[in-house]
Amino acid sequence: MTTYDSELLRLLNQRGHVHQVTDAAGLDALAARQTVTGYVGFDPTAPSLHIGNLASIMLLRRLQQAGHRPIVIMGGGTAKVGDPSGKDETRQMLTEEVLASNIASIKDSFRKILRFDDSETGALLINNDEWLSELGYVELLRDVGPHFTINRMLTFDSVKLRLDREQPLTFLEFNYMIMQAYDYLKLSRDYGCQLQLGGSDQWGNIVNGIELTRRMDGKEVFGVTAPLITRADGQKMGKSVSGAVWLNEEQLPSYDFWQYWRNTDDRDVGRFLKLFTDLPLDEIARLEALEGSEINDAKVILADEVTKLVRGEDAAASARATAEQTFAGGGKGEDLPTLDVPPEGVRIGVALTDLGFTKSNGEAKRKIAEGAVKLDDMAIADPGYLIELPSGSEARLSLGKKRHGILRGA
């Protein structure tokens, strides 16, 4: 493993956060002698971020833990354009009102994970719409445009992917890399920012910002990317059977969030403990060395620690208690998703879909045919089974061993 003088790069490296660094020696020397201001950008395209974004938020947390200042950039301006990186299709245009609502909803996630105060290392949250919407088009073309060549822009993966697949890439999206590069220049000028962090898919955008800042202002700035987080089964981090694993409670109940981490593949436990918790490395080494059924203890700790970080201690304790009641005691648990059953009853396939366990009634039928569905531990084989419950009574509906919901008679 590479050795570093700065606490920042040592911490990032030991925890598995480093994929690429633009000038490791230069950044290491800078971070060892002074406080570094670094940023990560997040486009508010939904009311919540998801755990795919959590890896980037943890970069900012590590930055602050190492004694430096993190900046969260809310991409209220860049989100109007849409980042083509990793996308096959043009992103849906979002209105000013939707973007403002999304930003307001997302802010709380950062306030749980980062420390915001007036100290030298206190985090800042800034909306890049403050400057991007003020830019004149001709001004941008004259001042920034000469530093980008079409030849170079065509070599970036975000562009090549679309062209190779013969998918349309709009002129609007083509400008995204210029706008993000301008963000870095602006943050360097106004906040003394010298570091941009992000996922590995942002490497091209980060390099553009570094080069623009050097060419226009003669300043040396740096970039660090984290590896793309994939699970041991090859799936991209952040997705579950039911869709995205959202950070906000409104988009995903804490029990489901906790349970996602509890269901981590044995092979991923140690890596995820390093990336997404603050547990000491020697304790993580002990936990990932557990074998057999004991590895489940490590998974519970992982679920507890990540849920505490993202949702708070009360949410973690409640989710764990619900899990214990559901799996150990046969109880129903207060945090399980619930569905009110009308007096006329509800078909079991509809109930599965309404609870979010299946994406369609057709998928529900297939799960029932596979024998994966139980009502109060009784296997249900009839896809047309009608669930009827007296008012005030409850039943537990299960899909496999890991998805449980409560049905309540209305």
From TrEMBL:
<dbReference type="GO" id="GO:0004831">
    <property type="term" value="F:tyrosine-tRNA ligase activity"/>
</dbReference>
<dbReference type="InterPro" id="IPR024088">
    <property type="entry name" value="Tyr-tRNA-ligase_bac-type"/>
</dbReference>
<keyword id="KW-0067">ATP-binding</keyword>
<keyword id="KW-0030">Aminoacyl-tRNA synthetase</keyword>
<dbReference type="GO" id="GO:0005829">
    <property type="term" value="C:cytosol"/>
</dbReference>
<dbReference type="InterPro" id="IPR014729">
    <property type="entry name" value="Rossmann-like_a/b/a_fold"/>
</dbReference>
<feature type="short sequence motif" description="'HIGH' region">
    <location>
        <begin position="44"/>
        <end position="53"/>
    </location>
</feature>
<keyword id="KW-0963">Cytoplasm</keyword>
<dbReference type="InterPro" id="IPR002305">
    <property type="entry name" value="aa-tRNA-synth_Ic"/>
</dbReference>
<comment type="similarity">
    <text>Belongs to the class-I aminoacyl-tRNA synthetase family. TyrS type 1 subfamily.</text>
</comment>
<comment type="function">
    <text>Catalyzes the attachment of tyrosine to tRNA(Tyr) in a two-step reaction: tyrosine is first activated by ATP to form Tyr-AMP and then transferred to the acceptor end of tRNA(Tyr).</text>
</comment>
<keyword id="KW-0436">Ligase</keyword>
<feature type="short sequence motif" description="'KMSKS' region">
    <location>
        <begin position="236"/>
        <end position="240"/>
    </location>
</feature>
<feature type="binding site">
    <location>
        <position position="239"/>
    </location>
    <ligand>
        <name>ATP</name>
    </ligand>
</feature>
<comment type="subunit">
    <text>Homodimer.</text>
</comment>
<feature type="binding site">
    <location>
        <position position="176"/>
    </location>
    <ligand>
        <name>L-tyrosine</name>
    </ligand>
</feature>
<dbReference type="InterPro" id="IPR001412">
    <property type="entry name" value="aa-tRNA-synth_I_CS"/>
</dbReference>
<feature type="binding site">
    <location>
        <position position="39"/>
    </location>
    <ligand>
        <name>L-tyrosine</name>
    </ligand>
</feature>
<keyword id="KW-0648">Protein biosynthesis</keyword>
<dbReference type="GO" id="GO:0005524">
    <property type="term" value="F:ATP binding"/>
</dbReference>
<dbReference type="InterPro" id="IPR036986">
    <property type="entry name" value="S4_RNA-bd_sf"/>
</dbReference>
<dbReference type="Pfam" id="PF00579">
    <property type="entry name" value="tRNA-synt_1b"/>
</dbReference>
<dbReference type="GO" id="GO:0003723">
    <property type="term" value="F:RNA binding"/>
</dbReference>
<dbReference type="GO" id="GO:0006437">
    <property type="term" value="P:tyrosyl-tRNA aminoacylation"/>
</dbReference>
<dbReference type="InterPro" id="IPR024107">
    <property type="entry name" value="Tyr-tRNA-ligase_bac_1"/>
</dbReference>
<dbReference type="InterPro" id="IPR002307">
    <property type="entry name" value="Tyr-tRNA-ligase"/>
</dbReference>
<protein>
    <recommendedName>
        <fullName>Tyrosine--tRNA ligase</fullName>
        <ecNumber>6.1.1.1</ecNumber>
    </recommendedName>
</protein>
<keyword id="KW-0547">Nucleotide-binding</keyword>
<feature type="binding site">
    <location>
        <position position="180"/>
    </location>
    <ligand>
        <name>L-tyrosine</name>
    </ligand>
</feature>
